[in-house]
């Protein structure tokens, strides 16, 4: 039996492996409900990704960790992972942690954490009054983080691989939902580190599934699969849809979408409610049962949840099934028959919630449902016939069920590991940027450099210049978002490029380069051509944004496109006029003595002052569309003209003298 020892297991290296660190990179699917580990092996001169069975002989491991507290010493005496932990769940509900992937990398105040903590039998709390981190409280008072739970699962999977391969494995590729934000990805990586793994790459789950679908057969049969692929992934806690284009070993993610809070557990919860309601109505003749009291009984809820999941899974294979829970409460039993049709009906709203993200992903990839060549189904929930039928109706095509929905993600992660270690060649995995990236330019406008859903890695350079004469520095502000004005987008980084030689405005050539690597890490650099001055920063895209937030941003951008454009044009005009008039003011001040001799000097100066007042008013009320910005443009052009003529007259007069 594999046990994760309390203190040292995460980093401890078993002595017999110490001298043989493996070059192998294992692939791990760290799932909400189940996890799996795979590696690349040679099968008759070909490479094949293979699942490693755990010490219980299972190909997947429940993502559950249970702590046993000794009642006398009040110390943790045992940590169990996987199905052994799951078996403890009933007798030790408050110390058995499951579905903690929903909490990893989130702050306590996060809506999803607040929602989740109400439905789980263990205690979720704030780490401390001053920290926003999520903590899980064990009954002896000790706190664990969702990252610690992830680390315990990863440690178990690492040991599974170590023992099976008889080598010490210290490198891994771990998968995450496509819409995990930076802090969730970072927390997953840190969990890997705690488990003694160097996490070489964090890969999106649907991308891994596509890799497994597109490559595993190729490796075995020597054939290649090309075409447009939709990966429909409904697991225990999240739903993801990705559209990929596979062309001769190049995997390009065209778009991704999903729902970070939709999965098998939501289906289980619906069934739990159904069972509870039936239990109450079956027994209310003899006893008044309070729903609230039942809901607060953690052991009872755990038994119900187990029964609900069991009947849900059974109904994927048979038309009707019996739920039998003896002595559920006091001496009362639950006995109930459920039909597949009944389950379909009560969970239809959840199944239908997957349709809009699919449509959005297709729209973003700029394709129609009929363009999709294959639909692959990932995640245990896709075994439910009603879900398969819904997907078939949506695409007007039968989904491909040749891949094993529980194993394909880990297989894909192992393939990605093989690509990194060099075991698998000629494959390039391409991901996409979730939102447009660009910089702020004149008047607070957003100048995009990398449009959303651009395939990464990508590198792009554009030339910008200064807006004011003799400007010796520029601030490069990097934004992410879909709106035309930076103030509606998210600032993800900024830096100053100083030391530009004084030149008239528009003369310096400042090359701004965005370089995004395969992990989505963005390097932004700016260099001024004549001086060679250069500066750069590294930022992470998609920081702190959930998939829902991304969808909202895109929708808002679409809704506001016209008004954003109007405001953007106004601001550009106002800023340009402001710069022009400032130049004229400077020239008037500098050559005051000479130009004041011209008879029209006083008139032009007054107009200049009036225009300054007007521009300042517009600047203060930049959104007030009642102020006609064209007036500024006309007045600025007229004044420029008059000032130019005045300078010409004065110059001609002085030459005549
Ligand atoms: P995953 O996160 O991919 O391991 O998916 C786990 C989810 O799939 C859990 O909610 C399971 O209850 C559910 N599941 C597994 N097998 C089936 C099945 N045959 N029918 C319906 N749901 C299933």
Automatic annotation (TrEMBL):
Gene Ontology cellular component list: intracellular organelle lumen; mitochondrion
Listed EC numbers: 3.6.4.10
Listed PROSITE patterns: HSP70_1 (PS00297), HSP70_2 (PS00329), HSP70_3 (PS01036)
The keyword ATP-binding is annotated on this UniProt entry: yes
Entry keywords, A to Z: ATP-binding, Chaperone, Nucleotide-binding
Recorded GO MF terms: ATP binding; ATP-dependent protein folding chaperone
EC class name: hydrolase
Family, similarity comment: Belongs to the heat shock protein 70 family.
Name the record gives this protein: non-chaperonin molecular chaperone ATPase
Organism from which the protein derives: Maudiozyma saulgeensis
């Amino acid at each position: 039996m594999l046990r994760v020892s309390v203190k040292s297991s995460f980093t401890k290296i078993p002595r017999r492996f110490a001298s043989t660190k493996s070059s192998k990179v294992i692939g791990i699917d760290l799932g909400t409900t189940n996890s799996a580990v795979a590696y690349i092996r040679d099968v008759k001169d070909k490479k094949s990704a293979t699942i490693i069975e755990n010490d219980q002989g299972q190909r997947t491991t429940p993502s559950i960790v249970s702590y046993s507290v000794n009642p006398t010493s009040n110390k943790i005496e045992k940590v169990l992972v996987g199905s052994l932990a799951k078996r403890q769940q009933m007798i030790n509900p408050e110390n058995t942690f499951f579905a903690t992937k929903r909490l990893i990398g989130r702050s306590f105040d996060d809506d999803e954490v607040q929602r989740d903590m109400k439905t789980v039998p263990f205690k979720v709390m704030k780490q401390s009054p001053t920290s926003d981190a999520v903590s899980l409280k064990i009954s002896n008072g000790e706190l664990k983080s969702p990252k610690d739970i992830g680390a315990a699962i990863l440690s178990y999977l690492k040991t599974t691989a170590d023992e099976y391969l008889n080598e010490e494995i210290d490198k891994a590729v771990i998968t995450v939902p496509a819409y995990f934000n930076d802090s969730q990805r970072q927390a997953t990586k840190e969990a890997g580190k705690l488990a003694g793994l160097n996490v070489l790459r964090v890969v999106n789950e649907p991308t891994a599934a596509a890799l497994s679908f597109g490559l595993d057969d190729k490796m075995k049969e020597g054939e290649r699969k090309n075409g447009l692929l939709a990966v429909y992934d409904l697991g225990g806690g999240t739903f993801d849809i990705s559209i990929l284009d596979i062309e001769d070993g190049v995997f390009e993610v065209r778009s991704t979408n999903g729902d970070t809070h939709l999965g098998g557990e939501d289906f289980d919860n619906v069934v739990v409610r159904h069972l509870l309601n039936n239990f109450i109505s079956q027994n209310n003749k003899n006893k008044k049962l309070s729903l609230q009291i039942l809901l607060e009984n953690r052991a009872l809820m755990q038994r119900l949840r187990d029964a609900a999941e069991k009947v849900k899974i059974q109904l994927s294979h048979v038309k009707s099934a019996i739920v039998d829970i003896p002595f559920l409460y006091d001496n009362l039993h639950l006995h109930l028959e459920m039909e597949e049709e009944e389950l379909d009906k009560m969970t239809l709203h959840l199944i239908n919630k997957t349709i809009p993200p699919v449509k959005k992903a297709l729209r973003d990839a700029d394709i129609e449902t009929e363009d999709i060549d294959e639909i692959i189904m990932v995640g245990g929930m896709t075994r439910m016939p009603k879900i398969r039928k819904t997907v078939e109706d949506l695409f007007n095509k039968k989904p491909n069920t040749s891949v094993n929905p529980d194993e394909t993600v880990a297989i894909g992660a192992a393939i990605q590991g093989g690509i990194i270690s060099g075991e698998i060649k000629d494959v390039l995995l391409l991901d996409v940027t979730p939102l447009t990236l660009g910089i702020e330019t004149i008047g607070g406008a957003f100048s995009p450099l990398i449009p959303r859903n651009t395939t990464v890695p990508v590198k792009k350079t554009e030339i910008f210049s200064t807006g004011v004469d003799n400007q010796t520095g520029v601030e490069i502000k990097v934004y992410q978002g879909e709106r035309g004005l930076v103030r509606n987008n998210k600032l993800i980084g900024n830096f100053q490029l100083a030391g530009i030689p004084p030149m008239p405005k528009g003369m310096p050539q400042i090359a701004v380069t965005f370089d995004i690597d395969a992990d989505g890490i963005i390097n932004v650099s700016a260099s001024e051509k004549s001086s060679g001055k250069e500066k750069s920063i590294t930022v992470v895209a998609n920081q702190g944004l959930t998939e829902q937030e991304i969808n909202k941003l895109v929708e808002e951008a679409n809704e506001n496109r016209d008004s954003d454009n109007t405001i953007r044009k106004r601001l550009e005009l106002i800023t340009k006029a402001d710069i022009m008039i400032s130049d004229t003011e400077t020239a008037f001040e500098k050559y005051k003595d000479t130009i004041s001799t011209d008879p029209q000097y006083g008139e032009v100066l007054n107009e200049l002052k009036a225009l300054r007042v007007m521009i300042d008013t517009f600047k203060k009320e930049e959104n007030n569309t009642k102020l006609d910005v064209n007036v500024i443009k006309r007045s600025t052009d007229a004044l420029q003209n008059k000032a130019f003529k005045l300078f010409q007259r004065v110059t001609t007069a002085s030459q005549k003298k």
